[in-house]
Amino acid sequence: MVNSIGINYGQIANNLPSPEDAVPLVKSIGATKVKLYDADPRVLKAFANTDVEFMVGLGNEYLDKMRDPTNAQAWVKENVQPHLPATKITSIFVGNEVLTLNDTSLSDCLLPAMQSVHAALLNLGLDKQVTVTTTHSLAILQTSYPSSAGAFREDLMDPLCETLNFHQKTGSPFLINAYPYFAYKGNPEQVPLDFVLFQPNQGVTDPQTHLDYDNMLYAQIDAVYSALASLGYKKLPVHISETGWPSKGDEDEAGATPENAEKYNGNLIKLMSGKTGTPMRPNSDLNIYIFALFNENMKPGPTSERNYGLFKPDGTPAYPLGITPNNVVGRNTTVGGGSFGNAVTNPYYPMSSSTGYMSISSTRQRYQLLGHVLLMVPLLMIKTLV
């Protein structure tokens, strides 16, 4: 099996380094995959011939337009085809967390848009190397504890099953955005911090499977696996398209500190370097994308939203992750000064061209993860953990 660390490359900022200067930063953390919220040609060109795999995005604002196969093919020809094969674009995610937005005008467009983009890839002979998918909030789950009882929301079953059939037919992965941070923020007095930060703790045992869990993220992943299996999609691969921890927050944002961000992301990267899966799927590959590469100074919402980055805009680490060549297996890692990466010199400061990122990664959408579904896991686990 091959576990892969990815990184989300957001650009809602006016002070970021050039994409060329971002390349060594991505490599310094051992990331082999990048999730881009649009198809910014500057970024895709900068990563040409680097062997880094890319997932590019079509924002929610494009869904209605992409229902038309002609529009979808024109977009693929302009934004994807010219960069292949030099840049390894392996996936297009169409829409972000659409099914939990309670907007039927969007959800009705989701599958037709995915089908049109896939048809475009097929027509252009690119369907064997580029898959089509979409991302979901963990709030698509109705039940998440214990992990073995994971189940999807009944009210989302019809559109969800349509997309699941599409994934199965085309061989594309099922993408979930999962943030244990929000569980801790919502109940800092009850949720054990060590359990969400991958620190040593007594863990919790699933009463049905008797599997032991020592971190919340893996318990959440296995809840998704269980929900998929209950509908007959046991073999569908699950990728975590976003997870992370902010290094700074407002007074009411419990846990948003450099120390906790260092533990969450650093421990996750080290854990991923081992060739193990989740308790329920120990032999399945894990593909997890950390949010995010940079702190982004123009993001709306609370202070935490602007402080998820592993790096500051000048290219220096936001905090040390303690990564060395010895604990990032099979990676070429540059280490200096007890941290990672090299400071970027002479960055230029363009306004972001990733306008679509704003619409698909807004604070409002991210905070859907604070719903009762996400908190159900830790609150019920607390009875066992404390």
Automatic annotation (TrEMBL):
InterPro entries: GH (IPR017853), Glyco_hydro_17 (IPR000490), Glyco_hydro_17_plant (IPR044965)
UniProt enzyme class: hydrolase
Entry keywords, A to Z: Glycosidase, Hydrolase, Signal
Keyword Nuclease belongs to the record: no
Record keyword Secreted present: no
SUPFAM superfamilies, per the entry: (Trans)glycosidases (SSF51445)
GO biological process: carbohydrate metabolic process
GO molecular function, a single term: glucan endo-1,3-beta-D-glucosidase activity
Family membership: Belongs to the glycosyl hydrolase 17 family.
Protein name stated in the entry: glucan endo-1,3-beta-D-glucosidase
UniProt source species: Gossypium darwinii
